[in-house]
Amino acid sequence: MGSTYGENIRLTVFGQSHSPAVGVTIDGLPAGEAVDMERLRAFLARRAPGQSALTTSRREPDEPEFLSGIKDGVTCGAPLTAVIRNTNARSQDYEAAKDIPRPGHADYTAWIKYGEARDYAGGGHFSGRLTAPLCVAGGVCLQILEREGVAVRARAVEIGGETDERAMEAAILAAKADGDSVGGVVECVVTGVPAGVGDPMFDGLENRIAAIVFGIPAVKGVEFGEGFAAARLRGSGNNDAFAVEGGEVVTKTNRCGGILGGISTGMPIVFRAAFKPTPSIAKEQESVDLGTMRPAALSVRGRHDPCIVPRAVPVVEAAAAIAVYDALLSRKKERG
Amino acid sequence: MGSTYGENIRLTVFGQSHSPAVGVTIDGLPAGEAVDMERLRAFLARRAPGQSALTTSRREPDEPEFLSGIKDGVTCGAPLTAVIRNTNARSQDYEAAKDIPRPGHADYTAWIKYGEARDYAGGGHFSGRLTAPLCVAGGVCLQILEREGVAVRARAVEIGGETDERAMEAAILAAKADGDSVGGVVECVVTGVPAGVGDPMFDGLENRIAAIVFGIPAVKGVEFGEGFAAARLRGSGNNDAFAVEGGEVVTKTNRCGGILGGISTGMPIVFRAAFKPTPSIAKEQESVDLGTMRPAALSVRGRHDPCIVPRAVPVVEAAAAIAVYDALLSRKKERG
Amino acid sequence: MGSTYGENIRLTVFGQSHSPAVGVTIDGLPAGEAVDMERLRAFLARRAPGQSALTTSRREPDEPEFLSGIKDGVTCGAPLTAVIRNTNARSQDYEAAKDIPRPGHADYTAWIKYGEARDYAGGGHFSGRLTAPLCVAGGVCLQILEREGVAVRARAVEIGGETDERAMEAAILAAKADGDSVGGVVECVVTGVPAGVGDPMFDGLENRIAAIVFGIPAVKGVEFGEGFAAARLRGSGNNDAFAVEGGEVVTKTNRCGGILGGISTGMPIVFRAAFKPTPSIAKEQESVDLGTMRPAALSVRGRHDPCIVPRAVPVVEAAAAIAVYDALLSRKKERG
Amino acid sequence: MGSTYGENIRLTVFGQSHSPAVGVTIDGLPAGEAVDMERLRAFLARRAPGQSALTTSRREPDEPEFLSGIKDGVTCGAPLTAVIRNTNARSQDYEAAKDIPRPGHADYTAWIKYGEARDYAGGGHFSGRLTAPLCVAGGVCLQILEREGVAVRARAVEIGGETDERAMEAAILAAKADGDSVGGVVECVVTGVPAGVGDPMFDGLENRIAAIVFGIPAVKGVEFGEGFAAARLRGSGNNDAFAVEGGEVVTKTNRCGGILGGISTGMPIVFRAAFKPTPSIAKEQESVDLGTMRPAALSVRGRHDPCIVPRAVPVVEAAAAIAVYDALLSRKKERG
Questions:
Q1: Which of A37, B50, D22, D142 has the greatest number of C-beta atoms within 10 Å?
Q2: pLDDT tens across A23-66, in order?
């Protein structure tokens, strides 16, 4: 289907880069959950562009309007819909992409899938712009989770192959100077999730988190705990020993990333998402004119992020919050 | 929910390691699809244990019985259920695990989630045994896909940190000699998928494949195309240039793993899954007695694989086949 | 979950009677389907209030704004969201209902379910106002279906126990004069559905249609073909004989309402929905003050329809169109 | 999809009349729920044929085997699968139906939908035989519900147009003597459901119950409370007055069938299902030979029920139990 996620809450992210608005509809949110708009705005601001030399100079206010599901700042049990108007769109910047798909983008696959009816302007529904309503949904979930003692924190741990913060920044600026871009890795840690959250097989926490995190544009890999590094360890070096601490079972290490058999151990949930370098670059690239089916050179103009990773950090938090809250609701059902 | 997967076909894998049977129920398979039982048996045999010194000496016949959904060797449109009886179970081998959870296993999380009612014998529903019915479902999908020109091939590309075949084998045998285990990486390539399969955001091919592959026990990471390595490339080095070949749009490289915006480009779909080392090892480990909440040493007895990766290869193919076939059915709906 | 429907298209109806807007989000609509806004408006006008002495004098413009999923009047493959602003709300009319639930309404059950956080004004999410976005979704489906040769037509066949058109009208006016209300029965006929649409058991056409039609406020019964009258026939009098007509299999009668085993026969699909009398009446009724838990008399003020049936006719068409179109998409998937 | 139902528990009914077995797979059942096999057998016996002159003389043992999900008589949290072997099949009785569809049956629509691959013997997946595994699932839910104080009781309230018990029996015997059949109405009452169960719009109790009850073969109408009769009442005569009784809000009457806005009021839930007369009758009927597309007379041989209603009573209870339990789980999630 595409843009719908969740088992206990069901959210659909809608909108295109240049449609009247982007937004999100969430069915299944319990009634009585307060939404602090100031804090939500502050969370959205972390994703917004135009904040520094490291990001695009476009400015989007990202002011969400809640059309339904909220009464006096509290969820009322009915489906919640929030929209963000698209105001600062310079659609002419993207018109070139209509016939000449940008390498690394969904332009070509959207054309194959939807044909001439596709909305190509600015990447349409595939635009990074759609992470704004995802952050609205995630921001609401983060506030609910916080009241249940769950915290979600992400950060960039690698950019352009660098892991030191200054080196990361330098890598971005160097790529920008070259009309190029760099990728990176975001690590996310979720604390306070009680043991027993998640389900076996296809609804494990890993499956649920991966299923939403791969929905963030540019993510090409997701790993939990030691992840790919675990494949190089021996069992004796990877297994986390159990111990008792304060009357509770804990693991002495957390190489499993807080998840065994898809279910939380009670230790922090840890995962990393790999972001490819932003495909929109000023450097000339080889493409094809889909009208004539002949080769065509392409240089992507417009204001683009040389690296999406800094702005992606809150998006990863939002995605994790949604997945974890949805899994928590399943747990409540069993216990209820 | 847990053990249910799919949008257009919906399959539920059922059974525990020591229940009367394991099996799979699939709703939504089209009528008229032939199932070659000989080939299905040959496929299942690749997953079966007892084949060499590299795997456990347990022998399971893995002979599926089709209870419904098949008539004269052809799907009839009704839900398909196939079961494999559990015959070679030595439940006493696992009885020790009842109160002392094995590090790296789901024993502890299952206890927290299901309490005393859990089926602990042999890992219950979390056992690798459950990959047998997954392979039945995947084997059926593989045969259907083959008739549509789609082939799925996986192989171990890394074991115990080694990438050379002999070195991989040596790593397994060395671990076995030490009463230890090793992990590895399986790479899977799906060819013949036409461009345009997959959906945006949460139902992209990456999301769909990750959501099922993380359901294979021991998988801790999934990446597509260059995956985590892409995070270290620049956009100019990671973007795949478009070209025209034989009247069709192709990409000159395939660093995106055949997927852009969640949708197939028509190039091979390539992904890798990281398997942690088998947690069941003979070496003594630290655990906790859940009855007394006191430390307890544990040495996992029984016949276990020193490395699950060789047997996991067909399981990854099965999982990929199910995910790709399900996505293909969505495509047919749009085109119909 | 509540306000989400569909297998192949998934729609969520959102909004409350007095929230900023009501609307609908639809994921899964194929790209390339034209939406004629003039015809959609005309369809919505059939549901709108204020049209005659038979309906409430409130006037709502019901002008939908499409926020996403449409480009140049054609679906683009991305989720479609349409909203209708709530402008003509006189919330003070309903304030009395806050503590004193209106008999026959969801006021009491909403209070029990959502507590103080519920949106009580005008019935909140349970208001008949929510049938407006349902009609937007249905109106889009009706236009698509029409291009596939499928037509959906409903009409009131009984009001206040009367089946003659003038008598129906008289019954409504008499009830209005008494500060009372009447119910009725809407019959819907869907023609042009090819044989073979629908699925066995729980996704038969009957199940699918009932599952959405019971979502229309005030519907308390749904029957297909002869329905409850069939229970009084003998098999020989109820079975529809098969015959060949123009090279096609037809049934000589259509007592089954065009559905056998949940699947369309190719004959018209016929169903009826029973609407209870509008619960909002001026006559004094017995209720309870939920604050004091003491008896309280209630006379519902405000402008209410003495009979909802005339305005419900297009809503039934909309619901039927959504259900039939969703089932048709399943059929395409099988055939693709 | 077809044979899959449920939001919080997800069950798939599988099998054909003459496949090796029929059965049911249920994912999502909480762990720790005891299943009393003796009581389950007794419940299934109420549905079994061969009990009196009023039903077919075929005898099926209906002995369910639990393949998974149960340990020591208690659910263990893993998916539950139960199968009933098909033993007493006389497939030659039905061979005539291969080319000549029985009027009133799904033979023709199955042929259109699945083509030559369909399993025609005994009606295949459309057979009333499939209500046996539905009763296994419902029987398990009934036992869980009972522990929560919920009771489900159905009874035949009308057969062949008669409402007196002796007259009903006489109507069946008269139809049998004529080689004909009669239909009837089953009423079901669910007591003990607390107020607040059910969801708005498309997941109301009415929608959920109708969506499963229309999955019982031969059901052509479902109504709640006064149902179609409510359409003939005035609002003042149909609204249920609220009152306080023992500190709780009750309604003085229960014309709404215990449901307002899709949500339980706390009063008994009351619904009726209309069953058409069994289509399998000895009387000669007009059909078509699908091979030659020429008219063909048909007299259905074999041992058929002259009236399915008596055996359908526990099936309605089973369906209601599944729907109500599934809705109750949603309620727990909100409250958890």
A1: D22
A2: 999 999 999 999 999 999 999 999 987 666 666 655 556 899 99
Inter-chain touch B334–C30, beta carbons under 8 Å: yes
Rounded Cα–Cα distance for residues C84 and C71 (Å): 19
* Angle at which helices D309-335 and D37-47 cross, to 10°: 140
Rounded distance between C-alpha atoms, residue D97 and residue C235, angstroms: 17
Contact A111, A287 (CB under 8 A): no
Distance CA D260, CA D328 (A): 16
A: neighbours with 3+ CB pairs under 8 Å? B, C, D
D50-61 pLDDT, tens digit per residue, is 666 666 655 556
Q: Which of B22, B119, B126, B129 to mutate to test the interface with D (most CBs of D within 10 A)?
A: B119
**CB contact at 8 A, D117 and B32:** yes
Annotate A213-226 with DSSP letters as a single string.
Answer: HTTSTTEEEEEETT
Cα–Cα distance measured from residue A76 to residue A30, given in angstroms and rounded to the nearest whole number: 8
Q: At the top level of CATH, which class does the domain D4-335 belong to? A: alpha beta
Distance of CA C85 to the CA centre of its chain: 20
Residue C106 tokens, joined: 């969801």
Distance CA D276, CA B40 (A): 43
List the domain boundaries for chain B.
4-335
What are the beta bridge partners of residue C286? Answer: C297
Q: What ipTM was assigned to the predicted interfaces of this complex?
A: 0.96
Cα A287 to Cα A302: distance, rounded to the nearest angstrom: 18
3-state helix, strand, coil in chain A (%, to 5): 35, 25, 40
C-alpha to C-alpha distance for B121 and B135, rounded to whole angstroms: 22
**C156: helix, coil or strand?**
strand
pTM of the model: 0.97
Structural fold of domain A90-335: Chorismate synthase, AroC fold (3.60.150)
Hey, which residues 199-228 in chain C have their CB within 8 Å of chain B? 200
**Residue partners of A263: CB distance under 8 A and separation at least 6:** A195, A196, A197, A198, A199, A200, A204, A205, B106, B109, B110, B112, B113
Rounded Cα–Cα distance for residues A69 and A76 (Å): 6
Q: Which SS3 state, helix, strand or coil, does residue A126 take?
A: helix
